Amino acid sequence: MRGGEENEVLFLFDGLRLYEPYHLRDFQSVASIVNSAAVGGIDFFTGAYPARYGDRMSGVMIMDLREPPEHVATELALSFFNASVVSMGRVGNEGDWLVSARRGNLDLIADVIDPEKGSPDYNDALAHFGWDFGPRARIAANVLLSKDKISLADEGRGERAGASYTNHVGWLRWDADWTGSLSSRTILAASDVEDRRDGTLELPGIVSGRLEDEQDLHAYEIRQDWTWVLSDRWMWRFGANLKHLDAEYAHVSERSISAPFAAALGNPEERRLDFDFTVDGAQYAAYSELRWRMAQQLVFDLGLRWDQQTYPIADDDRQYSPRVSLLWQPSEKTEIRFGWGQFYQAQETNELQLGDGVSDFFPAQRAEHFVLHGRRQIGDAMSLDVSLFRKSFRTLRPRFENIFNTLTLVPELQFDRLMIDPRKAESSGAAVTV
After folding, report:
1. Is the C-alpha dihedral spanning 310, 313, 315, 316 positive or negative?
2. How far apart are CA 192 and CA 275, in angstroms?
3. H or E segment and range at residue 113
4. What confidence tens digit (pLDDT) does each residue in 368-411 have?
5. What pLDDT score was predicted for residue 77?
6. Which H/E stretch holds residue 111?
7. Which of 14, 44, 195, 220 could tie 215 with a disulfide, CB 3.0–4.6 Å?
8. Percentage of residues in the chain with pLDDT exceeding 90?
9. Distant-in-sequence, close-in-space partners of 64: CB < 8 Å, separation ≥ 6
10. Beta bridge partners of 141
11. pLDDT digit string (tens) for 119-154?
12. How far apart are CA 122 and CA 102, in angstroms?
């Protein structure tokens, strides 16, 4: 998103963060694990987002659950990528429910085109039940499950590999309106993510190797957000988040690269890795946002966020993120927005790069955002939007990429593996929309 890496976007579904939001995440991330037919709306921040969103430094995608209708409705869908069913309805005047099931079709297509090459298979399911306890309180229970399995047999590139991913998420959400001006949202959640990969690589005279990799993430979270409308000019938002996480690793790999190919990218000719350990720790966060309507045409939003990690995180385990935004509406048809902020992204417990021989955590990455956006309504049927942005990235951690072969399940074994270790990065641009 605007120059950021793909793991720099925060995905929220019905208020809960999804740690692995994609199917087949190591193989082009072909689809979200949330069925789009169960999504009622999406808000998307491309930068300079408020202090209540943290620990990702490029963007935020907020997906809301679809509102069930008064009567039972069932939808069937069939596309190139998947087949799905969604059913929803209400229970009296207080309750509502939604269930969704989806199966990927790419394995059927692969069986027709070239069954010897392998097969990608994925499916997911969602269940929701909500209940209104009077006009001021609502409780909802949700379960989201996904499972992927993929095999790849590429004789031309000497690769035989397989991978499976499971993602189980359950959460309770309690929305309460304590008074006409004070409301809160509380979320209790548990996430369980399991990733498995194994494979071999055999290109005579170039590279050979094998890999077995297992990663398990267990995350338990409690989050509370408050909104207090003090007057028609002041609004205060504040909240806190506590997570306990543990990640289990088991990795064994061997790689041998022939001399001329190893020297080309500075890789060792022989490498053997063997890791088996658990990372256990917690993440804490708190934020405060104050919104002030200084005048009828001018609104300020000031925010501060604090994050801390207790697992090994190098020399930096606390981050403070100030945020400022401004909205000026000089006329009914014109608005100008400005946003600035500091954004941090700590390395998660399950993000160690063991397949590349890196078993240490790095300090939290940092980005500074400047965003200037203008909108002008032209007549009744047209509008003009102009956005200018700049992102300055600092304290970036090393990452690894494959130069020639990116469509692989065992990228760490390839001879074209390259480490990129930037000191800083800049991303800037403009967008015009009519």
Report:
1. negative
2. 21
3. helix 106-113
4. 999 999 999 998 899 999 999 999 999 999 999 998 887 888 99
5. 94
6. helix 106-113
7. 195
8. 77
9. 14, 39, 40, 41, 42, 43
10. 129, 172
11. 888 999 999 999 999 889 999 999 999 999 998 888
12. 9
In the prediction, which pLDDT does 66 show? 94
Asked if residue 421 lies in contact with residue 412, where contact means CB atoms within 8 angstroms, the answer is: no
Greater confidence (394 vs 314) lies with: 394
Quickly list H helices, 213-270. 259-265
Question: At 301, which helix (H) or strand (E)?
Answer: strand 298-309
Rounded to the nearest integer, the mean pLDDT of the chain is 92
The residue to which tokens 């993602």 are assigned: 167
| Mean pLDDT along residues 194-219 | 94
Nearest to 434 by CA among 382, 388, 387, 389: 382
Report how far residue 341's alpha carbon sits from residue 321's, in angstroms, rounded to the nearest whole number. Answer: 7
Classify strands 137-154 and 159-177 as parallel, antiparallel or unpaired.
antiparallel
Residue listed under structure tokens 């190797």: 209
C-alpha–C-alpha distance, residues 254 and 406, integer Å:
20
In the prediction, which pLDDT does 317 show? 84
Distance, CA of 330 to CA of 287 (rounded, Å): 31
Please tell me the distance from the alpha carbon of residue 74 to that of residue 429, in angstroms, as a whole number: 44
Which whole-number Å values give the CA distances from 338 to 46, 49, 312, 325, in the listed order? 13, 11, 36, 6
Q: How many other C-beta atoms can be found within 10 angstroms of the C-beta atom of residue 214?
A: 15
Which residues are paired to 149 by β-bridges?
121, 164
Q: Quick one: which of 139, 107, 144 has its CA closest to 19?
A: 144
- Tell me what the mean pLDDT of segment 338-362 comes to: 93
Computed from CA positions of residues 36, 38, 40, 44, in that sequence, does the dihedral angle turn out positive or negative?
negative
CA 299 – CA 35 distance, rounded (Å): 36
CA 31 from centre of chain: 13
Residue corresponding to tokens 């120059």: 3
- Tokens 């506590």 belong to residue: 242
Q: Which residue's entry shows tokens 């966020």?
A: 305
